[in-house]
Structures are given as structure tokens and as C-alpha cells.
Amino acid sequence: MFGSTFYYSTIRKYVTLFGSLFNDIHITRTNSTGKTTQVMHVPITYGSKEKMLARVIQDPNIDRSAAIQLPIMSFEMTNFDYDGTRKLPTVGKTTVQGANNSNSNFQYNPVPYNIGFVLHIYVKNAEDGSKIVEQILPYFTPDWTVTAQLIPEMNISMDVPIILNRVTLEDSYDGEFKDRQALIWVLDFTLKGYIYGPIKTQKIIKFVNTNLYDPKVPTGQLPEAVGVTPKIINIEVQPGLLANGSPTSNASLSIPVANITANDSFGYVTNLTEY
Asked: Measured between alpha carbons, how far is 203 from 205 in angstroms, rounded to an integer?
């Protein structure tokens, strides 16, 4: 329908970015004398709360050695909402030089979206939950900004704010006394991201040609002069570059224009022709 196929893995990068914030959390356990007896890494995985609870609580063989050991964390992406407050000019664009020196690649401004994420923390006791949550909350005031390279082809790096909206605590225990219990901390986040459109190609402008006309006609009206009055000045501008890479405004000393790229530190050669 829209005439182009493209995919930059932007949404996947947002998911990876969010999960990587919490992939290095550890908790320690001590004995009655305060000596550390255990250091545990808290693993994190992508999945819904219902799926994780089914594995943690409802597994009939929960006592087997392969059962999930608490604490553990999971997260999921929940929603997309357009954010008009961050809208950029629609016709604005980012331009970089293409592989071919005669072309440039450009991409129109991205569309802002708020992406919802939920982080679930599953623990067997309140103390473990407090140890994990206290390692997260101080960084969000209420946002934490991460710089991510979203479109490498366009050298686009974007600051991505992640906002902590709310924190709640749930108790999943509703069975018999012997049933397994899981306390669940629920942290709700909003990631302020952008979704990008296709990359397009255009020619690099190396010449500017402007004609000036005298609008004086018997009636003195400018509209009547267009296409009738002769031009009085022609202005041509082109890049100028010496063989050693220095800029120049002398056309006779410049290398051929076809050999000058957009990244060169070229000067400007201006030619005026009066009629």
C-alpha cells in the first residue's frame, strides 16, 4: 500500500534496551552474625506475569530440581500510545552521504510513541523483594535516560527516557498452607521512543544557478514582467577544492567538481554574468 518495505528492528531494540537495565542485579543473604552466606544473581526473562506464575506456582512437579528458583524477574511490553507533545516537523529530515559520492540518504523525522513496559519481580519473602527494589528505585527520578543507536545507517543516536510510573506489591498466595507462595513487585514504566520511516536517496546538489530579472515594464507591474523581461544577471555557485584538500574560490585551480564529495572542506566558486 505504501510502496516501500523496510525494517530497522527499532521495537526490538527498545525491548532489549529495557531488559538490559535490570540484567545485573544481585542480592546477598547473611546469617545471624551478619556474615554473607550467599550471593544470588537475579535472572530476568521476557514473559507475561500469568505465564511466569504458571511455572512458579501451578506446576504440579514444583519440587523437582528443574523448578524455577526464586527470586526471578520478568518483563513485557504492554502498549503503544502516540505522543503528540513530542511531535517533530513532518518535513524535517536527517541527511547523510551515501555510499555513492553523488548521492545522499535522508530520512524524515520519526513519529513519537510512548511504549509501556511492566517489570515483575517474584520473590519468596519480603526481604528479598526489598533488596531488589531498592537497587532500582534510586535511579528513576522519575525517569532514567539511555542513549541508544537506533538507525546505524543514518548515524542516528537518540536519548531515550524511561519513566517509572508506579510500584505495587501483590501476594499470589491463595491456596493451602503447603502451597508455594510468591510475592510479586510490579513496576510500571513508560519508554518515550520514536518509530522511523524508510530511508530514501537523493542527488547531492553541487551547482546553484540563479537568474535575476529587471521587472521594469511600461506598466510597472511585476506579474507582467515574468517571462517577458530579459535577465540582467546570472549567478552560478559550485564547490571548489584544491588537490591538497584545501578550499578554494578559484575555479581554474579546483579539481573537477565530480571528484568533490559532501564531506570535503570545499570552498565556493561564484561566477557572475551580466547581460
From this structure: 6
Written as one letter, the residue type at 34 is G
137: left (phi over 0), alpha (psi -120 to 50) or beta: alpha
Asked whether the predicted pLDDT for residue 217 surpasses 90, the reply is: no
The residue with cell 553523488 is 102
Cα separation of 165 and 115, whole Å?
A: 12
What digits encode the pLDDT tens for the residues 160-216? Answer: 999 999 999 987 655 554 455 678 999 999 999 999 999 888 877 788 888 887 766
Task: Calculate mean pLDDT across residues 118-138.
Answer: 92
**Which of 195, 222, 256 is the endpoint of a domain?**
195
- Is the torsion defined by CA of 108, 109, 113, 114 positive or negative? positive
Q: How far apart are CA 21 and CA 183, in angstroms?
A: 22
* 251 within 8 A of 238, measured Cβ to Cβ: yes
Residue 166 structural domain: 10-81+112-195
Q: Are residues 29 and 155 in the same domain?
A: yes
Residues 183 and 211 in one domain: no
In angstroms, the Cα distances linking 64 to 59, 68, 109, 175, 177 are 10, 9, 53, 20, 19
Same domain for 239 and 171: no
Q: In the prediction, which pLDDT does 146 show? A: 94
**Residue 148 amino acid letter:** A
Please state which of the ranges 1-5, 29-33, 135-139 shows the lowest mean pLDDT: 1-5
Q: Percent of the chain beyond pLDDT 90? A: 43
Count of positions (residues) in the chain: 275
